[in-house]
Specification:
Helices cover 5% and strands 26% of the residues. The chain is built from two helices and nine strands; from the N terminus they run αββββββαβββ. A hairpin with a 5-residue loop joins strand 5 and strand 6. The termini are far apart.
């Protein structure tokens, strides 16, 4: 694969004659991870440094990678909470999302509303819609601790946000 001065970060080690091999590759395969040109940021070549693409679970003494659903990639995450948040006895994940501190030439990363991912007990997670979880946060979320804030025996979720009030979401599960 050839490159020019504007696409110098594209890898050159694809087999000769493989003209369209790039159409079947992921962005990570196409981007040269050793590119160190001045002024080229990871945002500009397709890599968000805050993207959470997978979780690594230590189930058998070794880390196992489990990909997260695509919706977890829509906005960068700065906080992660692992807790049984829906009361089914299985660990769920909550992602505190958004980043407004990007250069003016880019749109801010503000599509995230806080994302609850329901665990199935095997390491796989599915997104829970806001209409079901009740979690809707429009700010730059950061920390997300879970604790029993109202002494009902169930974990609740607090989500801090830059410049606005902390969101507190109390468990709706009843015993």
């Amino acid at each position: 694969m050839e490159t020019d001065s504007q696409t110098g970060c594209v890898r050159k080690d694809f087999p000769a004659g493989a003209r369209h091999v790039h159409t079947q590759q992921s962005i990570r395969c196409l981007i040269n991870p050793t590119d160190r040109r001045p002024g080229v940021s990871r945002h500009e070549i397709g890599r968000d440094p805050h993207a959470i693409e997978a979780v690594f679970l230590n189930k058998t003494g070794q880390l196992e990678m489990h990909p997260l659903p695509d919706v977890a990639q829509f906005s960068p995450a700065f906080g992660l909470c692992a807790e049984d948040l829906d009361g089914d006895g299985l660990t769920d994940l909550f992602l505190a999302q958004n980043d407004f501190s990007v250069p003016r030439r880019y749109s801010r990363y503000d599509i995230g509303r806080g994302l609850l991912l329901r665990g199935d007990g095997t390491g796989n997670f599915t997104a829970v819609p806001a209409s079901e979880s009740g979690i809707v946060l429009h700010g730059e979320q950061r920390g997300a601790p879970a604790a029993d804030f109202n002494d009902d025996g169930q974990p609740d979720l607090a989500v801090s946000q830059r410049g606005v009030a902390t969101g507190l979401f109390l468990s709706r599960k009843t015993n």
